[in-house]
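User: I'm curious whether this sequence folds into something compact or stays loose and floppy. Could you predict its structure so I can see for myself?
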Amino acid sequence: KGCCASRSASAAAANGSSGHGCPLCPANLCKGLEVQRLQYSNTYEHIVYCGDGANDICPALALTPNDVVLA
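Assistant: Here's the prediction. I'll summarize afterward.
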């Protein structure tokens, strides 16, 4: 799921990239990974994500059919 699901921190480190290794997000934060953390916490039945720019593509891709993206 999303742009980061197949990348791990160890794979990113092996490739010489910093942090999470997501090609769509800045090095200091992957919003897609944050969305995935919310999903795996099983706290929320649905996620409504509000985005306003290109840096919101990754988290939008991490959403499921049960979730909503507002852009």
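Summary: The CA atoms of residues 31 and 56 lie 7 Å apart. The chain is about 30% helix and 10% strand.
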